[in-house]
Amino acid sequence: MTRRSFHRAPEAERRQELIDATLDCIAEFGLRGATVRQIAVRAGVTGGLVRHYFESKDHMIAAAYRQVLANFATNAETVEGDARVRLREFIVRNLTAPIADSRSLSLWASFISQVRVDPVLAAIHREGYLGFRSELQRLIGVFLKSHGRDARDEECRRHAIAINGLIDGLWLEGCLAGDLFHETELVEVALSSAESLLGLSLGPNE
Fold first, then answer.
1. Over the stretch 172-191, which tens digit does the pLDDT of each residue have?
2. What average pLDDT score do residues 132-161 get?
3. Is the dihedral of CA 12, 7, 110, 76 positive or negative?
4. Which domain holds residue 109?
5. Nearest CA to 173 among 185, 162, 191?
6. What is the C-alpha separation between 60 and 35, in angstroms, rounded?
7. Helix/strand/coil percent split, the chain, to 5
8. What's the total number of domains in the chain?
9. At how many degrees (to 10) do helices 83-93 and 119-146 cross?
């Protein structure tokens, strides 16, 4: 296990480093195998400092899962361009590394196995899913409006549910068996399927 060198850091930065170390350990050892001691070693701090930021391992796990879901919900607002480019990029980013890779799959598998039995993780999962879908729904609405199409909330919601399911399924296939597809195949499938659902072209990035 690689130990990070200790350095003095602001409170927010130190807390983020501990969350990152927690995710590293979960990806390597799983939820049960990732101990507070291992996390402290990975972060290059003492166990006492860990407890200064988190009351328990459960609190660290919860914060780490929020980070995982935040990483999945790539913020398309950082993409420059029109509504088409932003929606296209949202789909592309969520089907390519670092969102779609073996580490992300390992983390997802570790957490999802506990979501149905842990009310705290279940609530975080629900919040993350709704946040992701809401952002996708917003992007779809802006895109449809830019083409003079029906962009009522219910219509956009149904499109968001469908495209979210499409992204989830292709993400899982790519992470589990990426060698079965050529480099851009799953992204191309996602974009063409989204175009069929919306009845509009997402076109290539310019």
1. 999 999 999 999 999 999 99
2. 96
3. positive
4. 66-198
5. 185
6. 11
7. 75, 0, 25
8. 2
9. 150
Asked whether residue 138 is domain-assigned, the answer is yes
pTM for this model (two decimals): 0.87
Q: Are 146 and 83 in contact (CB under 8 A)?
A: yes
Report the alpha-carbon distance of residue 188 to residue 186 in Å, rounded: 5
Helix (H) or strand (E) holding 110: helix 102-115
Alpha carbons 157 and 140: distance in angstroms, whole number = 9
Rounded to whole angstroms, the Cα distance separating 182 from 195 reads 21
Residues 47 and 89 in one domain: no
CA distance 91 to 98: 13
Indicate the residue type of 128: G
**Residue tagged 């480099």 (tokens):** 183
Residues across the chain: 206
